[in-house]
Amino acid sequence: TPKVSATLKGNGGPEVIISMQRPALLASAALRVMHPKLYLALVTTQINLARWAVESGLRDVCTCLQFWASVFNCVSVICNRQCPLHRDPRSTPEGFDIMTSVGHYGDGVMTLSNLGIQLQYNSGVMVACSGHIVRHGVTCTGDRIVWAWFMRDSLHNFVG
């Protein structure tokens, strides 16, 4: 059963969600252009999730969804971390994850190893790929924040 993450529970939750609205809208708009069918499926999932939360009387979920501006149902905010090559096995294989890095750093490189691709990963660059299928990682030096937007199959399955 879906529930609000611990980070977003309590009085400060809506403030955290509101502070994420701009990057949420940017990632959602990018997905709308890159993969219109996936975008529509995610919008439908959010609508069905909100309907379920209202019918179930789950105020905390309703409150969070009221401010949630992304079509993605999950986000990780990563600060000043190297990211070794990995896959995201709980993400949906058919979906795109969108990763955007911002900050003051140099030598940013994103590696998509099983595709044989290395990208210059400067501040503001947005990369979309199936994190479930594509092995990816980042190296850089300096201060940065990564917004990694993704979705969970389990939530899509739950709301049908």
Question: How is the topology of this model organized?
Answer:
Blueprint: H1 13-19, H2 21-34, H3 36-56, H4 59-67, E1 74-79, E2 83-86, E3 97-112, E4 117-120, E5 126-129, E6 136-150, H5 153-159
Antiparallel strand pairs: 1-6, 2-6, 3-4, 3-5, 3-6
InterPro entries: 2OGFeDO_JBP1/TET_oxygenase_dom
Keywords: Dioxygenase, Iron, Metal-binding, Oxidoreductase
Domain 2OGFeDO JBP1/TET oxygenase: 17-144
Describe the structure.
The chain is α+β, with helices and mostly antiparallel strands. Helix 2 crosses helix 3 and helix 3 runs antiparallel to helix 4. It folds into 2 domains: 6-71, no CATH class; 75-150, Jelly Rolls (Sandwich), CATH 2.60.120. Strands 1, 2, 3, 4, 5 and 6 form a 6-stranded antiparallel β-sheet that branches. The two termini are 13 Å apart. The model has no long low-confidence stretch (mean pLDDT 91). The protein is 36% helix and 31% strand. The longest helix has 21 residues, at 36-56. Strand 3 and strand 4 form a beta hairpin. It is built from 5 helices and 6 strands; from the N terminus they run H-H-H-H-E-E-E-E-E-E-H.
Give the overall pLDDT as a whole number: 91
Secondary-structure content class: alpha+beta
CATH class wording of the largest domain = Mainly Beta
The CATH architecture term of the largest domain is Sandwich
Largest sheet: 6 strands, antiparallel
Distance between the termini: 13 Å
